[in-house]
Amino acid sequence: QVQVVETGGGLVQTGGSLRLSCSVFGYDLRISTMGWYRQAPGKQREMIASITRAGTITMIDSVKGRFAINRDNAKNMIELQMSSLNPEDTAVYYCRAEVVTISPLKKEYWGQGTQVTVTS
Prior knowledge:
mainly beta
């Protein structure tokens, strides 16, 4: 049984900062790529940042320079440090983890989501 748990959402004013954390729990896990997605009201879920086990990062342009993603492989966790937040960043943020089942097969797991609200 694999469980993905996000923490750290909340309410912040424009220009403020928040840090999201995501931990993956399970037995004998081999986790490949992990990432953060978000879904704003009325919009599709979008990938905002991902990081491979080796540390290769992919990030969308709208958050570059404001958000940072890091990973601790030993703890099966990633963090998203968000700064210079604006109301367009308001969304439910989800963590996604790719878990290797039988190499090279992988299965994706999602967290329950954490709300980030940025007020003007």
